[in-house]
Amino acid sequence: MRLGRSILVCIAASAMLFASHPEAKASVAKGKQVCGETAQAVKTGKEASRLLLKTLGGNMKKHMKAGGAKDALSFCSMNAANLTAEVGSKLGDKVSVKRVTLKPRNPANLAEGDEKEILEALENLKRNSVVLPKYLLQKTKNGYKYYKPLLINKKVCLKCHGRNIPPSLQAEIKKVYPADKATGYKMGDLRGAIVVTIEK
Ligand code: HEC
Known about the structure:
The protein has 200 residues and is of the alpha+beta class. The chain has one domain (2-199). The chain is built from five helices and four strands. Strand 2 (136-140) and strand 3 (143-151) form a beta hairpin. Helix 1 runs antiparallel to helix 2 (25-90) and helix 2 (25-90) packs across helix 5 (167-176). The two termini are 25 Å apart. Heme C is lined by residues 60, 69, 72-73, 76-77, 80-81, 99, 101, 104-106, 109, 150, 152, 154, 156-157, 159-161, 182, 191-192.
């Protein structure tokens, strides 16, 4: 739906350009190309972020069921980074995917630079009771970055990121992640984002 709408907006903008400039045929063609490129980047971002969520979420569910939060925690701590890299390698060498946050459990996931600014902007929007968009698309020097905001949207997230984590689980978390910042969340909080980097 959203994709359809953005393409429509693109076509309408191109048509207006065409009407106001007799020599605008080339510009229209260029405009269409840019719109097509944007739509393609959104499609790639959507597919990549879905694949990552499905991979990480599916594995977590399986381990929660089999051995509870402790089992899932040790699985995540040992495999989340590898699984993320594996998903990345399936996407070809022009696309990469990762998770970033302002309050990391794994310090490798700390948002920096423009990614930090965008997460801070999303936090600000949330503070002003804005319902966050499903995704954002940023133009970069050599392509795009697709951001999918990740909310604490399931009760199960609170087991490992919430306020009342059982002491034995908390101890496990501290053992693997001595500098953990990823607790104290409640339902609906912004936890971070998936970032899909797409090179032209
Ligand atoms: C069983 C415990 C557990 C549950 C349940 C859990 N997480 Fe995590 N989460 C972790 C661990 C461990 C990491 C660090 C993984 C790593 O080392 O990369 C992590 C990392 C993350 C990260 C990456 C940023 C960071 O802090 O390193 C995000 C985003 C995240 N979790 C979101 C969620 C969401 C959303 C849910 C609910 C759908 C959820 N988690 C449920 C244990 C859990």
